Amino acid sequence: MRVWINKLNARLHHFMAVPAILLFGLFFLYPLTQGVGIALTDSNGITTPNFVGLQNFFDFFKDDRARNDVLITIYFALGSAPLLNLFGLMYALFLDRKLAGRGFVRAVVYLPAVISPLIMGYIWYFILQPERGYLAHVLEGLGLGFLDVNWLGESSSALIVLVVVNVWQYVGMTMIVYLAGLQGISADFYEAATIDGAGRWASLRYVTLPLLYPSIKINVVTNIIGSLSVFEIIVALTDGGPGYATESLSIYILRMLYGSFTGYSTAVALILFVIILIPVVLFLRITRKSEYEL
């Protein structure tokens, strides 16, 4: 009996992965396979669907609006993800020091990240309203009323505003991950760098950033995923307007679904999944090679 128990204990770690595998299959693999099946039909969510093969995917690449939404989504990600990591790292480096009130400042920076992006978007919507918004009153009080423009109503500025608001809201979450990484770096590394004559910038380049690689990977991947799947902040601020100038692919998917194009919207969702997967996989491969070189 004891021998049997020892063998069971020796193999127990193999069974610990079973719950995770079951959950992964139930909430990812099963919906994914169902989605692929629906994407190959002309389903409208009401009548019996017919098999159409890859026609939905061909229709997507023929749709000028869909291609424009892909570009809008990529532009948003190219503006949002790098700024989130840059400012998140800057905040973390600054607030990692022994400063009076740094706990309060950390809470203030992180607080917007715990608020619903839909609510935050509506708050900024009322702030940025021309003539009657809070920003308009502040500019008027400062004698800068000429700067009060319709930020959300102009295609040239609406996407920039969306990027700024998104970075402002989620920079605290990025900062927290970097702070956790910084606090895991032993002071001995910095002491050794100082003895070797390294200054502040050299320590940052050759000590902090290499040892911060795990945190950088987490933040870059999560920010890429979040930026490419942006939805709520656009719905609240511009609803994809003016026209389709700020319509992301996620909003396009929802509108096609509400238009009873269930099969087509599912196909577009799979395309968005691939669009998100490609930069994430490429980044992880590049950083894996870089880790080997360190």
Notes on the structure:
The protein is mainly α. The protein has 14 helices and no strands. It has helices at residues 2-15, 18-39, 55-62, 64-95, 102-110, 117-127, 134-141, 155-183, 187-195, 200-211, 213-228, 232-237, 249-258, 262-293. The longest helix has 32 residues, at 64-95. The radius of gyration is 24 Å and the shape is flat. It starts with a helix and ends with a helix. 27% of the residues are buried.
Radius of gyration: 24 Å
Q: In what range is the share of β-strand residues?
A: under 5%
> What is the arithmetic mean of pLDDT?
88
Characterize the largest beta sheet: strand count, sense, and whether it forms a barrel.
none
> How far apart, in Å, are the first and last alpha carbons?
50 Å
Q: Spell out the helices and strands N to C.
A: HHHHHHHHHHHHHH
Low-confidence stretches: none
Q: What form results from the Cα inertia axes?
A: flat
Number of helices: 14
Q: Structural class given helices, strands, pairing?
A: mainly alpha
Percent helix among the residues? over 70%
- Total strands: the figure is 0
